[in-house]
Specification:
Layout (H helix, E strand, L loop, with lengths): L16 H8 L3 E4 L5 E12 L5 E12 L6 E6 L4 E3 L2 H9 L3 H16 L8 H4 L10
Antiparallel strand pairs: 1-2, 2-3, 3-4, 3-5
């Protein structure tokens, strides 16, 4: 069941990703170039650098919602968009992204998914002919 929380504009600039999430207490959502609905979240992964220092990578995860009955129909992930020494720093950097820039990124990910780079296909897909049949 949904609940209505009025926006609290004292929490940030709702024209940025992090500000929108703070003001509205929910993820930002977009209609993608494919006509489907997407929600976006900031995710981080911790890893070590070659020097052994802690490094945090940040990227955006777009959850694609199905038509009709609500349900997750897939997702898209950006490449690493920010790196830093702490999760808070990386989240802060990505949170400053303008929502317009997030939408441009989403649409570019949708276009790339619709037209994948043939060189990036897994070997078992590359072995299929143009009709999708396995090699004879």
């Amino acid at each position: 069941m949904g609940r209505f929380l009025p926006p609290d504009h004292s929490l940030g600039d709702e024209k940025t990703l992090g500000g929108y999430m703070a003001v509205h207490a929910r993820p930002a959502a977009f209609e993608g170039a494919d006509g489907l609905s997407y929600s976006v979240d900031i995710l981080t992964d911790e890893s070590g650098s070659s020097s052994g220092a802690r490094r945090v990578d940040g990227y955006l995860l777009f959850v694609r919602w199905g038509r009709g009955e609500p349900g997750v129909a897939g997702h898209l992930e950006s490449d690493v968009l920010a790196r830093g020494d702490s999760e808070d720093a990386v989240r802060g950097t990505l949170g400053e992204m303008a929502l317009d820039d997030v939408k441009v990124l989403l649409d570019s990910l949708i276009a790339a998914a619709a037209n994948p780079d043939p060189a990036a296909r897994p070997w078992y897909e590359a072995m299929r002919d143009e009709n999708g049949a396995p090699p004879s």
